[in-house]
Structure formats: structure tokens, C-alpha cells
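Posting for a labmate who doesn't have an account.
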Amino acid sequence: MRPRRPIASPLYPKIRFAFTDHPITVWAGAILLRLYFECLGLRTALTRVLTPVAKTSNHQISVVDVLLAWWYGLALGAERFEHLTRYRRDPLLPRLLGLPRFPSPDTVRRFFGRFTYRHTTEVSEALMRLSLGSLRSPLTGHTLDLDSTVFCRYGDHEGSCKGHNPIKHGRPSHHPLVAWLSERRRLLWATLRAGHAGTANGVQEFLAQALTMLPAGQPIGLVRADAGFFVTTFLTALERRDLPYIIVARLTPLVRKLVIHHIPEADWHPVTRGIAVAEVQTTLPAWRGQTRRFVCLRQTLAERPTASGRRLIECPGYTYRVFVTTVPYAADLVTRMYAGRADCENRIKELKEDLSLDTFCLQSFDATDAAFRTGCALYNLLMGFRETVLPTCWFARRLRAVRDLVLLVGADLIPEARRLRVRFAVPPEDRAEFLQRLRTISEGLPIAAQLEWDLNAAEDEHPASTDSALTIRPESQWSGASP
């Protein structure tokens, strides 16, 4: 009996499948990131920084290559250490990134396992200063936003304890503390803490260390923080450093009594429909007679049913928010100045969702802290990459958009005598912009003499193709280039 032939669909043509040994990658846009790192002289700087954790074994992958591979993996979307395998198996990506070979996940784990608390602090300080080296200061100084977040953990890891977890109650976690430069969207300093640490635990030492990361001549014009930092010792430390601040006051019984009984109704000044502000100079028992300025924001629920803030049983129909501040401006302007702090939540989302720094966890707390802090340094580098290489309109886009629209570029490699020809699968309408980025970032670098690109030549030789070409010559120089 003859086998029955499958019925062919008239909607699709016949497709023939086969294998190829041709080197192909989907991450060819990472050449832009590699050129930006070389523009910063990153490999030379990392060689000095990583000396304390350098390895001495034979056939080793240097610690500089391991850290660069870790950063490339994060930038390209790795969410677990095992995801680095996908880049290790890419036949073309190591050539484009200038790495002799891509390290395995175990190699990266062992690299971070060599870090002690001293190594983590010294290396992260050097990396943060390096990533902030080209930072420009606003005219009125930087606005420093302090915040904390929660990294959920699944397993028995050092420092993973039960604490405040707003998403998964009772789940062990780590509790990082971060400081942001609002106008430039940079991370000034970050550290990992145990999950049961309070929000303000160690914040004075954290602030002192964060201020040392600022480039010379760039002051802090304002410090903003939420109610978790409403601690007397922290307020005193800010005033001792002469740092203006706006901090949300925790609505304790004493503060609620202040809002209800010490502010007459006539002192509430309307700002807009359903919003009124008031201010008062007073003290609290813990302040030992020192008076501070309170600015109160009240919203009427009847006119603004979705208003944020705290509802008080004694005053139904309103929500309240109270700030303690040393800023001498009008009360309504103080509330608007603090409102800009909401953007730091978007920055935390980029750390957790775009770079996935909350998913990389090792048994050693110091190793986990080292992975987190080096990832924070990469965040600043990617921000600089976005401002340097991409148009101004990219400033408001998230890092995942940079990865999907800039780094995600297909390419293949064709050997030609002593040269290697890389063809980028870029649509014709995007080729001019892509090559302009290449020329802009590599101009004046030693690697520029090693690379050749010409959009017109690529179109003339391959009139029917939709790819742009990059010629590398010779291959031996490429493998030894940096970073």
C-alpha cells in the first residue's frame, strides 16, 4: 500500500530546511557599545581597578574580559547567569566584542566569588567614579533622591531575611539602598543590605560615601527622600552638611496632632481645585527644642477621588501629606519640587526589569553585592552611551528600548583573503543613521584604522541586498584590540 501524501497548503510556498556553519549573530549592534567602551578607555582603567581580584591560573580568561562579558550579557538581556551561555555559543559575537572567548556562567560566578567586602567596596567605588567622570552639573546643583527597594530571593542565601516585602509578604529578600542624581538620571551610589534592615539603617554612612562619588566642583542642591528616612539623626546630619532637603514626614500620632490642631482652617491656602497647602514652624519631643518647617498638602476626596496621601480618621474627606524641609520657597513650590522624585521609581524599574539585577543571586552575600554594584556601574555607562551615541529623543526611553532597537541587529561574517567582512541586516532607511553612529563614536580611536564602512559601496556591490557592510582587517589585530 502506497503511503498517503500529506495535503499541501496553497497559502504557503514550499520551505526547505538545512544547517549552516556560517557565523551569524542577532546582536551585531553591540559593536556600538564596544566602541563606546573603547572611547572611554575602559579596558586600561579596568586593568588597574581589578588588580586585587586578578587570577593567576593558566589558560585563564582575564578578569577584565570576564567583567566586560558580564556587562555585555546584562546589556543584551541576560536574566540569569545561565543565560550567558547563549552569548558564549554565538560564533560571531566574541569577534565583534573583541573577546578571545566568552566566559561560561560558572566562570562569572567564580569571579564574583573572589570578592570580599573590601574588594567590593574598592572596586565599586572606582567603577562608579569612572562611570560618572563625564557627568555635567546642573546650574543649581544636583538633586539627590534617596530610596530603597526589595529584591525577592528564593533559597537560602546570606543576608536573605524576612523583612518588609510589599509584593510577597513573608518572602526572604535583600533590601538595597540607592541614591540617584535626578536631572542626569545617574546612579550615584548603591549598596546591598540584609532583608530585615530598616529603610534608614546606615543611611548617614551611606550618604557620606555617596557624596565622595561626585566629581569635583559638582554640589548637591537638594536632597529628597520618602517617609522611611524621617529620622532625627538623618535630618541632623543633612543640616550639619548644609544640604537643603525635602523629606516626607511619617504621620505618627504627634505629627497628626500637629496637622489637626496646630493649623487653623484659615491658614490653608488653595492651590488648585481640591488642593490646599499650609505650613508651620514647630518642634517634636525627639528634636530637643529645635524647630523645623513643616509643609502640609491637603486634597479633597470629593473633588479628587483618586488623590494620593494618608487619610486621617479625625478628618474624613481629605488626604494629607506632610513634608519637613529647609527649603525657603513657598509651600506650593516645595510640594512641586518633591513631586519630581517620582521619576526615581522608573529608574529602579530599569535596574530590576531592564538589567534584571534583582535576579542574580549567589550564596555569598559579598559576591551578590559585587554583582549588584558592578551592574549599577553598567547602568551609568549605558546612560552615557545613550546620551553620546543616540539622538536627544532617546533620553526619555528606557534601556530595554535601546537593547531592542539599537543592539538587536542581525549580521553574518564572510572571510575575504586577510579581511573579515561583516554584513549588517539593517533596513535601507536605517543604514545612514546606523553608520553615522559608527563613525561618530569611533572617530579618533585606534580601532578606526582597523574598520572600514561605506554605505554607497555596500549598495553598489549588492544592489539587491538589504545589508550594510563592515570590513575588519586584519583579524589578528582585531583579537588583540580593546576592550
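Reply:
Got it, the C-alpha cells are right above this. The radius of gyration is 27 Å.
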